[in-house]
Design brief:
It is a single chain. Helix 3 runs antiparallel to helix 4. The chain has 3 domains: 3-87, Rossmann fold (3-Layer(aba) Sandwich), CATH 3.40.50.20; 116-175, ATP-grasp fold, A domain (Dna Ligase, domain 1), CATH 3.30.1490.20; 179-378, ATP-grasp fold, B domain (D-amino Acid Aminotransferase, Chain A, domain 1, 2-Layer Sandwich). It is α+β, with helices and mostly antiparallel strands and 383 residues long. The chain contains 13 helices and 17 strands. Strands 9, 10, 11, 12, 13, 14, 15, 16 and 17 form a 9-stranded antiparallel sheet that branches. The structure holds adenosine-5'-triphosphate and magnesium ion (2 copies). Adenosine-5'-triphosphate is lined by residues 115, 137, 139, 144-148, 174, 176-177, 179, 182, 205, 208, 248, 268-269.
């Protein structure tokens, strides 16, 4: 049987491994962490750094094809792998998604609107920032996730001290936009350019971290749905992307000047991999985002997935486990349509994604009602 490899051993890698194994593949995970969630369930776990020559050679030796679950895997490592094995996504696409400056330039090339922004690379850039970008959010160009590496600033003095706090690394300053909603679109694109998608899911963030995803018909204004899917496919095409790609969008408050100027919908950022907002596809769709990742990687046919149940996903952060508490699974799992996914992480920390829970139901109202009850039992803020 063929073996598939994945760079990165986090929860996304773990769910990739599950999907690959259920289709009969052997799996190899490359991750330096000895107890990574994916490494724990993979047939093989290479515990090496991403750029370690021997680790990469071993991956190539064992695997028919390699993907990534970790967007900060060095693009150079992907380029090395791609020289001898089908590797998806391509190193260039990952390099672009790793750097907000390159990412924004790429989005402009694709003709999709982004938040007005300025590149901040030195003190002179700070001085020339347009007043219209304040209040804004200063974001490090690289390595940020879950709202880490970004600071909200309301005036020039705060901007200057935020840049100090971020240690003068290259940043972008984005105008703070009036958001009505956030959503994301996940597509899978094959080696031949054929592309399938999931309908946009509606996302609620708290403290910069995804908290809730609602996935059902009617979750977003219908006019936005086609627009978001078309933009995502355009972005994937422009990157000559192979694999699963997620694009996050801001839905701007109707009637605001920003909405009028930018056309109602702007791209926030993209992730060159399956995405937390697509975890509901495991339980609510006939093909999950991880099934599609396996199919793209293995060169198998892509068939438009069918979303068969209304779904609401709640992220389970480490806060639920503090002081050695164990969440009340017995009462939560007694609710109808609850699917619990825990990632096998050995240590809970506040804000750390430990698992998620998806409620599936015949109707959106039912999925929301059960998810609200689950949130109440778990002590998660209502949505
Ligand atoms: P992820 O974990 O999704 O990669 P991240 O750390 O890259 O997150 P962003 O997606 O840039 O962070 O921002 C996190 C959240 O902060 C957004 O989902 C949104 O709620 C809010 N936000 C970010 N930029 C803006 C903006 N320009 N205007 C208004 N809100 C914003
Ligand atoms: Mg991000
Ligand atoms: Mg984000």
């Amino acid at each position: 049987p063929a073996t598939l490899g994945v760079m990165g051993g986090g929860q996304l890698g773990r769910m990739f491994v599950h999907a690959a194994q259920s289709m009969g593949y052997f799996t190899v995970v490359l991750d330096p962490d000895t107890s990574s969630p994916a490494g724990l369930v993979s047939h093989q776990h290479i515990q090496r750094d991403y750029l370690d020559t021997q680790g990469l050679a071993k991956l190539v030796q064992h695997c028919a094809a390699v993907t990534t679950e970790f967007e900060n895997v060095p693009a150079a490592a992907l380029a090395t792998l791609a020289a001898t094995r089908p590797t998806a996504p391509n190193a260039e696409a990952v390099a672009i998604a790793q750097d907000r400056i390159q990412e924004k330039a790429h989005l402009a090339r694709s003709g999709v609107p982004v938040a007005p922004y300025a590149v901040i690379e030195n003190a002179a850039d700070l001085a020339t920032v347009a007043d219209s970008l304040l209040p804004g959010i200063l974001k490090t160009a690289r390595l940020g996730y879950d709202g880490k590496g970004q600071l909200r600033v309301s005036n020039r003095a705060e901007l200057a001290s935020a840049w100090d706090a971020l240690k003068h690394v290259p940043c972008v300053l984005e105008q703070m936009l009036p958001l009505a909603d956030e959503c994301s679109v996940i597509v899978a694109r094959g080696w031949d350019g054929a592309c399938v998608h999931f309908a946009p899911q509606r996302n609620l963030h708290r403290q910069g971290i995804l908290a809730v995803t609602q996935a059902y018909e009617g979750n977003l204004p219908p006019a936005l749905v086609d627009k978001a899917v078309t933009a995502t496919k355009k972005i994937a095409d422009e990157l000559n992307y192979v694999g699963v790609l997620c694009v996050e969008f801001f839905v701007l408050a109707e009637g605001s000047p920003e909405s009028a100027a930018l056309g109602g919908l702007v791209v926030n950022e993209m992730a060159p991999r399956p995405h937390n907002s697509g975890h509901y596809t495991l339980d609510a769709c006939d093909q999950s985002q991880f099934d599609l990742q396996v199919r793209t990687l293995a060169g198998l046919p892509l068939v438009q997935p069918r979303h068969h149940s209304a779904a609401v996903m709640l992220n389970l952060l480490g806060d639920l486990w503090v002081n050695g508490c164990i969440p009340p699974w017995d009462t939560v799992l007694a609710l109808p349509g609850v699917h619990l996914h825990l990632y096998g992480k050995l240590q809970a920390k506040p804000g750390r994604k430990m698992g998620h829970l998806t409620v599936t139901a015949a109707t959106a109202a039912e999925a929301n009602a059960v998810a609200l009850e689950a949130a109440r039992l778990l002590g998660i803020e209502a949505f």
